[in-house]
Write a structure and sequence with these properties.
The chain is an alpha+beta fold. Helix content is about 25%, strand content about 25%.
């Protein structure tokens, strides 16, 4: 897929998106969504230890692609939508306790503002990587593979868990400053893999650039997991290449 960074362009071309579940036969709790025109994209990684996090991740990306104006009102609407899926009083008591603790997921949102500028919102441990050719220019919100070993702040359906929202992070990148720009969004396992190998040859970006199909992405994930270089987790890549 190609991104044209002409100054009067207002939309991205649609990205390539590949995702592989943690284990065969288990649901993939990662989710991606791209707006109809391609101007907004979102990626979310549901936390496996929480209640139906895959459904929560899908709600977050769908709502963000439709309306990327994230704030507490936006999040409250997402929580309300999730709550409509379940009648708490009719859940088994163990599921009630899990439901009350909340569902958790990351959210990475990219909005094209025009003139080559993108706005990136990051909550949790899904990351965006800005590249010039196969060279990593920047990453957000993490810049080191060691950061993936800490516990991330994730969006929750339990309002008490969202006190950190006043400190959410975003960045703006001017992709037009890169000679051959690319923007990659990925969930944590792949993000850690990329940052751990950013100075290697061939670069991790060159390796990912060669992947053209879901079959190829599955082969890459299986090989890297087998070699012990890629942590076993749901693994998702959403990539705007040029």
């Amino acid at each position: 897929m190609i991104i044209d960074f002409d100054h009067d362009q207002r939309q991205f071309a649609r990205p390539r998106s590949f995702s592989v579940e943690k284990t065969d036969g288990y649901p993939n709790e990662d989710a991606t969504k791209v707006s109809r025109g391609g101007r907004v994209s979102a990626l979310s990684d549901g936390a496996s230890v929480s209640f139906d996090s895959g459904a929560w991740a899908k709600i977050l990306v769908r709502r963000y692609a439709r309306n990327p104006c994230f704030d507490r009102v936006w999040l409250s609407g997402a929580v309300t939508e999730f709550g409509k899926f379940y009648d708490r009083e009719n859940l088994p008591w163990m599921q009630q306790a899990s439901f009350d603790r909340g569902s958790f997921a990351s959210l990475l949102g990219v909005t094209y503002l025009g003139s080559g500028v993108v706005h990136v919102l990051a909550i949790g441990d899904s990351i965006a990587v800005l590249c010039d050719g196969d060279r990593i220019v920047g990453s957000f919100p993490y810049t080191s593979p060691a950061q993936f070993d800490q516990r991330p702040q994730l969006l929750s359906t339990n309002a008490a868990e969202n006190d950190f929202l006043d400190d959410i992070e975003f960045i703006r990148w001017n992709l037009g400053e890169c000679g051959r720009p690319a923007l990659l969004c990925m969930t944590d396992a792949l993000g850690q893999w990329v940052l751990a190998r950013r100075d290697e040859e061939p670069s991790p970006i060159a390796v990912l650039r060669r992947i053209k199909s879901l079959t190829g992405f599955k082969r890459f994930v299986a090989d890297e997991r087998k070699a012990g270089r890629l942590r076993r987790d749901d693994t998702t890549l959403l990539a705007y290449w040029r």
